[in-house]
Design a protein that fits this description.
The protein is α/β, with parallel strands linked by helices. It is built from seven helices and 17 strands. Helix 6 crosses helix 7.
Length: 349
């Protein structure tokens, strides 16, 4: 398939610039990938689609304050966008300046904190921090809102661009499907017997990078780090045994789970390799899902790898119809927008 197969027209006014007043206050579209049937609901109805046998798998990554502003030691203004934390003192980052910084050059933040440019890897620079990376980011960084949100990050974004269950710092973009859940809804699901499990995938800024290759066979995915706990693998086995459905909350959860299934090399669906690894998995139509049977997600950008993933899951035709319906019905799109619960076109088992 080609990039143009995943294009659609979206009025600018449907791009959500702010979150809903309440986390559960968004709309929810239900799409059955087998029949193509669409229904319009509210997200507060999400529990109606779950049974006590089901398993929800959340991405517990925590968004870091990845955007910082400073000056080069030569005086020029600099914007730093951390892409990945390498260790306690080093990051990979995009550095925007009138001229790219030199190896060895220093970037000065407020308070006189100096970052040193250690090396360059394509468009990313390795930066050395004089103290703990997370301490510096928390002190001088800003919430890294996506490029399509046309405003400066506000104080409310520090909490709203973060899931209520976030606990593992390292993402530079939120796993946005999880933004719809509040503590009360999680408790309602738990009390009704729906099991929850967690993976960690640190979402990188590459999730917003456009696909530049018209022929998708030539596209190279950005790399992201993920971890699958043994407890999550056991939860998947239990859900399978009792006839429950595996629902990934977000494309990042799905990508981690399916990457782990491929890494395990097992021909048995539902089995996966635990522990941590890197993934460049590019999910597009034709991919065979081994773990996930339901997907909760937001609406994604035209021509994006995330839209290709959803199309692989529910079928290209069904997703095109769903997105046309979403535009016609004035759903809110992207990170702070509405949600979509998708039933797989081809069951994983």
């Amino acid at each position: 398939m080609r990039l143009s197969d995943f294009d659609y027209k979206l009025p600018d006014e449907l791009i959500a610039q702010r979150p809903s007043a309440e986390r559960r206050g968004s709309r929810l579209m239900h799409l059955d990938g087998n029949s193509g049937a669409i229904s319009d609901r509210r997200f507060e109805d999400f529990a109606d689609f779950c049974t006590p046998a089901d398993l929800l798998i959340f991405n517990d990554t925590r968004v870091i304050k990845a955007r910082m502003f400073g000056t080069k030691d030569s005086g020029g203004k600099v914007e730093v966008m951390v892409e990945r934390v390498l260790d306690a003192r080093r990051t990979l980052a995009m550095v925007r300046a009138s001229r790219a910084p030199r190896i060895g050059q220093r970037i000065v933040l407020g308070g006189g904190i100096e970052l040193q440019v250690v090396s360059r890897e394509n468009d990313l620079f390795e930066l050395y921090f004089p103290e703990d990376v997370f301490t510096v980011l928390d002190r001088y960084g800003q919430t890294p809102l996506p490029p399509y949100i046309d405003r400066v990050a506000a104080s409310e974004d520090e909490s709203r661009y973060q899931t209520v269950y976030a606990r593992e710092p390292g993402a530079v973009a939120a796993p946005t499907a999880g933004l719809h859940f509040d503590a009360a809804m999680l408790e309602t699901l738990r009390a009704s017997g729906v099991e929850a499990a967690y993976v960690t995938l640190h979402v990188g800024a590459g999730t917003f990078q456009p696909v530049r290759e018209g022929d998708l066979d030539h596209h190279v995915m950005h790399e992201e780090w993920y971890r699958i706990p043994e407890a999550t693998a056991q939860a998947v086995r239990r859900a399978r045994a009792r006839g429950g459905r595996i629902c990934a909350v977000g494309t990042t959860s799905l990508r981690a789970l399916e990457s782990a299934a491929l890494a395990g090399g097992s021909q048995v669906d539902g089995e996966m390799q635990t522990g941590s690894a890197e993934t460049r998995l590019f999910i597009r139509p034709g991919f065979r899902f081994r773990i996930v049977e339901r997907l909760l997600t937001n609406f994604h950008l035209p021509r994006s790898t995330l839209l290709m993933l959803v199309s692989a899951f529910a079928g290209v035709g069904a997703v095109k119809c769903a997105y046309r319906h979403a535009v016609e019905e004035r759903y809110r799109f992207f990170s702070y927008g509405d949600a979509m619960l998708v039933e797989s076109a081809l069951q994983a088992r």
